[in-house]
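Help wanted!
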Amino acid sequence: MHELALAEEVLIIAEQQAIQHSLSTINSIKLTIGALSCVEPEALRWALEVTLENTLADHAEIQLTIAPGKGKCGGCGATFAVTELPAACPQCQNWQTQILAGQDMVVQQLTGTE
Amino acid sequence: MCGICGCESTTHEHTDQSHHLHSHDSHDHAKDEHAAPETETVQQELSSTRLIDVEARIQARNDSYAEQIRTRLAANQVWACNLLSSPGAGKTTLLVETIKALQPAIPLMVIEGDQQTDNDAQRIRQTGTPAVQINTGKVCHLDAHAVLHQLDHPALTESAILFIENVGNLICPAAFDLGEQARVCIISVTEGDDKPLKYPDAVLGSDLLIISKTDLAPYVDFDIGRCATNARKINPKIDVITLSAKTGEGTTPWIDWIKASRQHYRQTSTLLTA
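Answered by r_m:
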């Protein structure tokens, strides 16, 4: 359940931003989670609910977007969308897929009240 | 304030038996100098509600600690290896046999991660190699912060190999860079040969897959070739070694892999610091 540890990192980032921008309350947090990251979005949602309770981000709206995964074939060089692993190349069917995108987990934006 | 990571915990014991997992209630990372720089702009101001562009990676803090570990290791020419597996795949047994094969020619150090007990660290210490135990409590993985705190207990030995035996779990540890030079995933033949497909993250991030307990292969349906193929579908670059720590069969390629990887690291890190 590493999503709890990740939720705690989200809280730390939100608290840093609140101090820098003199916010007393965080109203919403917008996250982008890569489709190929090690995160189960619903588990992260639940972890955030638990972690943010009784903090300045209590009841903050969580906007979670899944960033698409992208791969490159090590055989023919084609690039293609990857939704899960393993992923064969749709052009030449081999399994030499190199992951180009979809592993990042980012806090994009937040809104808060002074 | 802690002299290692700058955190403000006052209950920080750098003993070798128990790792503190600080409460972040008393741990103000807003002042943490390790935190990755972020660029943010206040986009708009509607009455007192503000929209802030943050663009901060969730793992930035862990990765910043991992980078500090890498710097410390490089300064001491220490090669570190992070071992991942499910519980019961034979990580500690393999580690004990690996230590016997490598010592005394190469100085060795071990960090053990478990929810509780220091049983594994005790097993390692019986070989004469120093071992520290991190007890993660309810946490299911080691993170770079926890490992960084253990690098001084004992102090890093010049040119050593540091083995980090992660918590037995093939999911969560995959998300945490520990500053290691090599990551090794171990799957035993008493598990399923489709395990790489079920737990792709651990395989994707690993440099080597060890298929262990091959002495038991005649008694189970595990197809070693299929497991290796499945792993390469996830990670085409992964090396695969099959071995039995119990009989010693196949351990020579593993020891050779360690030596070659360490040698490569020492050459490249010397070039970088020269």
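OP: Thanks! One thing I noticed: Chain B has one domain: 62-273.
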